[in-house]
């Protein structure tokens, strides 16, 4: 695991940058054997991680694309592909050698009916409408079983007690202690990737991108607009890039504030819940001042922003930051200093760095164990390229670390937003619309570090420049397993604060 | 202790004293107004991502509109969104706005079921069903109960068990994979019970309309008591709509 191999691939993968598009046929096509060993070789370097691996129908067969990102400062993304007849039934599983690939292989298996021989956890991902085998249903999910006299199962959901999205949790418990939690998702499946092709106009697709996960409207839509712009050869102004970065950081600030407030509910700390909750209101109301929508829907458009960032908005934001910071600092000092807050959070729901590396955790779930995985730093685009965002990490991997990380990221975002405001122009030029014509036969990839972690979208165009395939990956796809690992050997009553602090997306997973 | 008191003092009063009164910024996309100005109707209809705009006569259906702003950006002389957030109604057709019309959207009192005010006028407990909602409508429903909107003061509250509730609030376009759970949950609510559709996705499918992964058959089985458009709904649209529904006497 530790040997750092020559970072350059021996069979040269195609190297691209975040937000770049290339001719689809420029991506090397390897036999499955060569493809496997090359992907695994790249991933044996701990500096690399797989940001997407999927298959799609192409010219009568199936095309597999693997995108491996180098986090060591090069900004490189290595692309490799493999082609196979549509009726392929079996392939050797790569997950046996690299667990982080488990979710990708499960998705390919579900979509195309391929059996990955030796896959240790070959289960459905989301029960997509067009899955290969419709005899597999939510009702007959193969739950892991533990038997024993004292063992009992606790099923929860799909509908939960609070006002949240649906998903099913199956706890295997010995008394109050959780031995295993299995998370069964798919209830939220809307057929997003197919809709990207069914809906033909740009505005339809943009609105769709904003609704992949409405709490990450900016994070997902930013990946979408970057893909479309690179496919259309549009270079947007520095100021527009800056404004998009600003929107992304405001979204992070709002959702981190929400998360910390919601944690207050989990530990019955009413003051923290209410005061921090009240702090989120002006932040999302600010988005409403900017674009008419508290979640930033309607702001980002391909080639432009729909609404101008005015001088008045700038002043308003500076005032907001001052007020937010004063109130936040005061409550955070109180919140995180209380023994009755610390006690339930510390050493609860712990995951280790080794586990997070194994499962390929991204974003906050990686950073709570000291893995500095952060697209803003490793594969920066827009303003992050000019002014590096310095990633913060925590080490202890427990609920406390997740709360602390969000607390520190709130402060980082406040500082970064101020920096953005020092550099912003308020001439409104960013709202000018541009024509969008996609290049034919291209592949493009765009990653953004949304508040939960990396969002990765890949697009492919056909010979006429029409979208032939669109792939969406939300960070939650990787991190749900982290939640499952976190609650092992914990009391079942600690589940809510674990769930609230991982704060993962159901619809992002289910698409 | 002193710190806590200081914090509470600094917070002051957070709640909105009268939830029927706040004024949202002009840029908020609430109830639209269509002018009588001539327009290339085909182009106007075509620009809309969800087919919310119809022609001859020009009209805009809020039950289908995802509030993307495209029509108003491209045809500002024809379409203008006002900051009027009171856009909930109990009659589906009332969500359609016609050219030259600048009327508030309201409930039709004659079509509110009699028992609603009698039973729920002072207290309405709701079970929320996110049926493939994208979590923005859900967050806004949560916000309805926060210290600002504080709908708990009107007795409006979300509860965990459908058996303790007076109705359901559906968000999302209702995926095939949530269809069964939606039905089971509704069946568990004791009668008389309400159905509220929160958000455009729930009302018409919104941007997801046409997806084969949906199963909206539940909605054709029962009368709907309240439609609240939005993408997502604004908490003020929700609170005002629900208050009008439960407080209107018949
Ligand atoms: S704002 Fe509504 S009516 Fe206008 S284009 Fe968007 S979805 Fe259509």
Structure write-up:
- The complex is a heterodimer of chains A (511) and B (250).
- Chain A has 511 residues and is α+β, with helices and mostly antiparallel strands.
- Chain A folds into 2 domains: 14-117, Beta Polymerase, domain 2 (2-Layer Sandwich), CATH 3.30.460; 192-510, Cytochrome-c3 Hydrogenase, chain B.
- Chain A has 17 helices and 16 strands.
- Chain A is globular, with a radius of gyration of 22 Å.
- Chain B has a domain at 109-247: 3-Layer(aba) Sandwich (Rossmann fold), CATH 3.40.50.
- Chain B is built from 8 helices and 10 strands.
- In chain B, the strands form 3 sheets. Chain B has a 5-stranded parallel β-sheet, with helices on both faces. Chain B has a 3-stranded antiparallel β-sheet with strand order 2-3-5.
- In chain B, strand 6, helix 5 (136-144) and strand 7 (156-158) form a beta-alpha-beta unit.
- Classes of the chains: A alpha+beta (511), B alpha/beta (250).
- The interface between A and B is large, with 63 and 66 residues.
- The structure holds iron/sulfur cluster.
- Residues 47-50, 52-53, 60, 65-71 of chain B line the site of iron/sulfur cluster.
CATH architecture of the domain at 109-247 in chain B: 3-Layer(aba) Sandwich
Count of the domains of chain A: 2
Total number of helices of chain B: 8
- The spatial strand order of the largest sheet of chain B comes to 7-6-8-9-10
Q: Strands, helices and their partners?
A:
The complex is a heterodimer of chains A (511) and B (250).
Chain A: E1 14-16, E2 20-23, E3 29-30, H1 32-43, E4 48-58, E5 61-70, E6 77-85, E7 90-92, H2 102-112, E8 115-117, E9 151-156, E10 168-174, E11 177-184, H3 192-198, H4 202-210, H5 217-232, H6 238-266, H7 270-291, E12 300-301, E13 304-305, H8 311-335, H9 339-345, H10 353-359, H11 363-367, H12 375-378, H13 383-386, H14 399-423, E14 442-449, E15 454-461, E16 467-473, H15 476-486, H16 495-502, H17 506-510
Parallel strand pairs in A: 3-6, 7-8
Antiparallel strand pairs in A: 1-6, 2-14, 4-5, 5-6, 9-10, 10-11, 12-13, 14-15, 15-16
Helix pairs in contact in A: 4-5, 5-6, 6-7, 6-14, 6-16, 7-8, 8-14
Chain B: H1 2-11, E1 32-34, H2 41-47, E2 53-54, E3 59-61, H3 70-74, E4 79-81, E5 96-98, H4 114-120, E6 124-130, H5 136-144, E7 156-158, E8 167-171, H6 176-188, E9 194-198, H7 200-204, E10 226-228, H8 235-247
Parallel strand pairs in B: 6-7, 6-8, 8-9, 9-10
Antiparallel strand pairs in B: 1-4, 2-3, 3-5
Bound molecules: iron/sulfur cluster.
Iron/sulfur cluster binds at residues 47-50, 52-53, 60, 65-71 of chain B.
